[in-house]
Amino acid sequence: MQKQDFYFDLPAELIAQHPLPERAASRLLKLDRRSGQVADLAFKDIIDELNPGDLLVFNNTKVIPARLQGLKATGGKVEVFIERVLNPQQAKALLKSNKSVKLGTEIYFDGMAKLRVTAKQGMFYLVETLAEVQLSELMTEHGHMPLPPYITRPAEEDDDARYQTIYADDTQAGAVAAPTAGLHFDEDTLTQLAAKGINSAFVTLHVGAGTFQPVKTDDLTQHQMHKEWLSVSPEVCKLVKQTQANGHRVIAVGTTAVRCLETASQSGEIAPYVGDTQIFIYPGYSFRTVDGLLTNFHLPESTLVMLVSAMAGREAILCAYQHAIDEKYRFFSYGDAMLII
Question: Long-range CB contacts (< 8 A, 24+ apart) of 107-112?
């Protein structure tokens, strides 16, 4: 398949720039994997679409305030976008400045040098904190929520809470983009799902900036995915196997949960996994664990629209997306949801 096979024309006005006042107020487009038929629902209707014994798998990563605005010693501005925290004082980052940033450059915040550029690795730089400053402290004091590039406004105070799932785990901070399918869940919805007998499990994948990188090759077999760190615990593997053995469905909440479960299942059966993944899921892929997917709407020609096409079929996805455009669904991170089941 070619990259252009996944193109669709999206009106810019459908790209959601702000979250809705309430998380669960979004719309839900249901796509039947077998028939390709779609139905227009409200997000709360997901409770009726799932059965007792089904397993929802959530990504509990926490988004860090990864975007920092600093100055060089010359006074020139430099934006630091933390891609991955390596240890309490060192990170891999993207740097944006009017002039290229040299190794050894110190970056100032509030008049003090607090970061130094130490190395270059491809498109990324290695940066380390100075004077025993911790990266977590630096981001808390100077960082902003790393809203995606298609949200064309600066981050606002409300984004600190709304660009974060309500179940994000403080001990699993490390994502630089939200697992956005989870943004629709509020406490009431989770309570109702549990009351119906729908089970939950949590995996972790620290979403990287690479999730927004375009596919640069026309031939999909030549595309190399970016690396993302994930963890699938023995407890999650046990729940997945019990669910399958009892004839129920494993439903991933978001493409990141899919990447976790399918990475951990490459041997043919799910097993505990901790480490990086570069799994690229596109049509022709045979799913080993995931039966259904709750997701947002994705960018044209992106690896994410290829992933959902692997699950439901390219033509079915493109038809469903056209329906969503015609019905003026809201797209991307703060947009509406889609249930492929």
Answer: 107/70, 107/71, 107/72, 107/78, 107/80, 108/70, 108/71, 108/72, 108/73, 109/68, 109/70, 109/71, 109/138, 109/141, 109/142, 110/142
